[in-house]
Amino acid sequence: MYPVSSRFLAALAESHRVITQVQVFRTDGEVIDLPHQDGAVQVDRKAAIRRTCSVTSPDPSLVPTSPVDELAMYGARLRISRGIDYGDGTSELVPLGVFRLDEVEGNPHLGPVTLSGQALECIVADDKFTQPYRAVGTVVGAITALVVRSIPDAEVVSLIVDTAIGPRTWDIEGDPWAAVQEIAAAAGAECYTDANGTFIISALPDPATTDPVWTVAAGEGGVYIKGTRSMSAAGVFNAVLARGEGTETAAGPASYLQVDDDPASPTYWFGPFGHRPMFYSSATIVSPGSAQAAAELKLRAAKAPNASGNFSSLPNPALEPGDVLRVVHPDGLRELHQVASFTVPLRVGGDFPIGTISAKEDA
């Protein structure tokens, strides 16, 4: 969760005044505080580009009508925030993302105008390889090199223990962002941009050992609105075999089989669920340790959908995918959920649906 004050979290469950901010950073250096009447930021861990946005503004002057306007707007960036005005002269704003402005559409005379954008991962993804690209060294070094290749001033922060990778070459037309994720997997990690537009390399938190960051409870003083619970075996695996064999070196094959070894799990490898392995391979995996890290990361996501939840609460703009929440349903059932996706509205009263990648009963 984005760091906010305890006052902020407490105020979410009370009557409060919502404030939002949308800034446009034009390519000519001008920064515009954008008047807006609607919009939302969508956040989805499963999407290649984790954050996207759409903003509706009454200002028709935003529609480019000349070559100069087009140059200033195409490649511009949006910075979006939502927060609380405490009514005592103080307020607290929480960033929701930094986005490349991809589309401006509307009536140039009357408005309204809709602006759409994607988080900065899209800049790396769109910068396809025009010649073979070879990655070597370590996970953090190789990812940083790919990111700054497209965004020279990008900030890359690693929250993992760095590890060596095997040489890996991508062909012409290859997707650099897909390459970033493949490299990250060699360390059991993933890469994404956070709400500030910083590129983060981190591992998905384990909900079994991670403290909940927020309680979504029904009843008086709670933020719970409605919820559902589901189970499905579709696309669920209970083992991952990660393999790597460096084709550009003399390194021998490295592999590791990670199984669901929790007897209390419904997908227990030795239980009635049976054996349902999936397979992952990459030339970046060069040791049993990196194979194990990749297998553990893939399995954590592969077995998660066996129990999932979708619920709505009062909006909390500070959430991040991977956050663990404590959910208390109206009947008293307590669960731990790990956040997969959510949508933050830019208007008062907007719904705040949260999708999860796992749900477990909370003792």
From TrEMBL:
Q: Where is the DUF5047 domain?
A: 39-166
The highest taxon in the source lineage is: Bacteria
- Give a single Pfam family match: DUF5047
Please give the InterPro entries that the UniProt record associates with this protein: DUF5047 (IPR032490)
> What name goes with this protein?
DUF5047 domain-containing protein
